[in-house]
Amino acid sequence: MKKLISIGVAVALLCMVVLPVAVAADYTPPQTYAKVPFAIVQSGFELLNQILPTLLAEFAPDMAWITGLMTPIGGWAGGPLSWSVDMLAWGLGLGAEVWTLVNDAFDIGYPEIGTVLNTVSCKLLVCWSATNCTGTFDPCAGNST
User: Which residues fall within 8 angstroms of residue 25, CB to CB, at 6 or more apart?
Assistant: First the structure.
């Protein structure tokens, strides 16, 4: 029981002090601003993959199998899980198109809703840096943002 408490204290200290500093120093750059949280989670798992073997060897050698999970979980968080941002942007763009058609067809009188949905959609896809998006990618082309 004392070992579990020691591991809990070590992990808590890691999360409060070491993890934010290390993640800021060693991170995987996200593709878009909206994917920054996913990149932070991925970097956190990469950090844990580096320090857990030492902690577990000291406090809980029988739990060393956990270190094998860090890299796949981090990769999934930074990759496939972060695609949910792209799916959300696509869904908002589709919602904007549908709203515009419905608003025009039934003369509802709120065209701004389509503009808001479209603006949020394109802003989710704005590049994190100039090197991440190449070519003529411009998600907000034609929008009044």
Answer: none
Per-residue pLDDT 10s for the chain (145 aa) are 566 556 655 555 555 555 454 444 455 677 788 888 999 999 999 999 999 999 999 999 999 899 999 999 999 999 999 999 999 999 999 999 999 999 999 999 999 999 999 999 988 888 877 656 665 656 677 644 3
Partners of 32 in the beta sheet? 127
Q: Which residues contact 142 (CB under 8 A, 6 or more apart)?
A: none
Residue 124 has φ and ψ, to the nearest 5°, of: -65, -25
Token pair, residue 113, equals 């809703």
**Amino acid identity, residue 99?**
W
142: left (phi over 0), alpha (psi -120 to 50) or beta: left
> Phi and psi dihedrals of 32, rounded to 5?
-135, 165
